[in-house]
Amino acid sequence: MSRDTGAGAAGWHDDEVVAAGLPDKRLARRFGRLLDQMSAAPGQPVPAACGDWAATKAAYRFFDNPRVTEHGMLAGHFAATARRCAANDGPILILQDTTEFIYSRAQPGKIGFTKTINAGRYKAGQPNVVTLCGVLMHSSLAVTLGGTPLGLTAAKFWTRTKFKGTWTLKRHVNPTRVPIETKESYRWLENLRQSMALVGTPERCVHVADRESDIYELFCLAQDLGTRFLVRVQTNRLAAAPAGAEPRDRAHRVFTQLSAAPWAGRHYVAIGQDETACVHVKFATIQTLPPVGKQKRYSPQLLTYIQALEIDPPAGRPPIDWKLVTNLPVGDFAIAIEKLEWYALRWKAEVFHKVMKSGCRAEEARLETAERLAKFLALIAMVSWRIFFLTMSARAKPEVAPETVLTTTEIATLDAIDAARAKPRILRKTLATYLLQIAMLGGYLARNHDPPPGNMVVWRGLTRLHDIVFGLSIRTRRQCG
Prior knowledge:
It is built from 15 helices and ten strands. It has 481 residues and is an alpha+beta fold. Strands 1, 2, 3, 4, 5, 6, 7, 8, 9 and 10 form a ten-stranded mixed β-sheet that branches.
């Protein structure tokens, strides 16, 4: 029997599918049914989620259809994300990050490769170099300042067919002189451009990313598009010479000028759940020059650098030393702290990818080609976003009505479960109350000192909840028959 749970249970993704860029209505209906099945059984293999051979074969045909693309599948979700961004006030953080999905295959060439790693040594002492088979995903996730994920604004999937000896190549070619359009890192600029075209209000967006996105071309593109960025620095770029210095002296670098700035104050940052660290904070506005080989193409940028350096770090870990760069105005210590807190939200992108891998078990898929896996990952990305959205929405707005996030079928099923208890638990009709019931279905104990429910207990609870929905639907059909 197919695991379809009815239109009411699938209502959450109506908005995510209605604008999907699929070539005909039949494929759109199949996509909606498949999204319903996978969201009702997150983490289950395709056959288990579909429930029978006919539905499973239809899913495989969908993934194998050349007319279906991962971008077309996500088009409806992108449009829904834009609406959620428009409905929220204040700045929107666009978190960019790359992750790898690793697979084990007898014929890895059908998928492609991600990177080569050193897996230790053989008994004879020779190094064991292993090439990993898999798919890379570069995503842009829109979140509010409260940490609620509004959805993806861009996503790119790809594999590497072969390795080109990057380190050997650097001995002969200066990578700063290679056009960005020919590099894999061009994905950062593509996602930036696509996100701004989608959201439509670049002035309220801040693009937050780690050191891999420390790309001068990205800074220039952000200026051209009228948007903002907040990036962790890894490159000690050339800086305009201070007054009185020789203008051709290339010893002037941004880190040198930043180190000369005075410390503005101290701040405590949270590390994990139970540890905090005290950091010195400083900031400086520096005229930053493009790489030497690109100074004819790009103009200097007036950027602000922020450094947070830990005071008296413990012996067990390296000290916190963040250097951030932004084109946002930073006029005082309080604003510098605000930008540090915004950058700390970048971890939400890592959590989103963790939900895809650990919760929805995206790396356990058995599809045999990169094209099929990319479509499967696009589907799983939507399911993972919904789990993440449920969890964080209940933390950000616990008192709102549950209908704002949950479907009518999910609410009715939770009410039926609660009515069967000797002592009801749902005393208030709020989102936080209903999400707590879902988490408790997933093993959350709800003790007084427990942290709020996390993504893992929520996805386990959703799985059990949809099993109950499925059972109730069978009973209803038999009674009606």
